[in-house]
Amino acid sequence: MFYGQASADLDEAKKIVAALGLPEEMAFELTDPPLKGSLEPEIPTDPLIYRFYEIMQVYGLPLKAVIHEKFGDGIMSAIDFTLDVEKVEDPNGDRVQVILCGKFLPYKKW
To answer: Which residue intervals of 20-99 are DSSP H helices?
Structure first.
């Protein structure tokens, strides 16, 4: 919600601003409809966000091919979707595990 990618209903928003000790009138801002995909069109410069961009540049087409091979022609939903981030301890340095789980949506045949 704070990045404009989701919204809350007014009751949820009031609970959030209360928990954060923010003025109650800020709750209304958290109810605004989200601006999905609102990142700037240029290549991101933040190092962490850039790595995800780089991952898609390198692995995007192979990942797409594997999904099509296993599921058929379609896409992974970003609406019916969960994302988890886990810390994996490793003696050579801790690792970041990102788990994306989206519903498969097949394209209709005409």
So the answer is: 47-71
pTM of the shown model: 0.63
- Domains of the chain, with CATH numbers? 1-38 (no CATH), 39-72 (no CATH), 73-110 (3.30.1160.10)
Distance CA 50, CA 47 (A): 5
Catalytic annotation, residues: 51, 54, 77
Asked whether 58 and 51 are in contact (CB, 8 A), the reply is no
For the stretch 5-26, pLDDT in tens is 678 889 999 999 999 999 999 9
What percent of the chain clears pLDDT 70, i.e. is strictly above it? 92
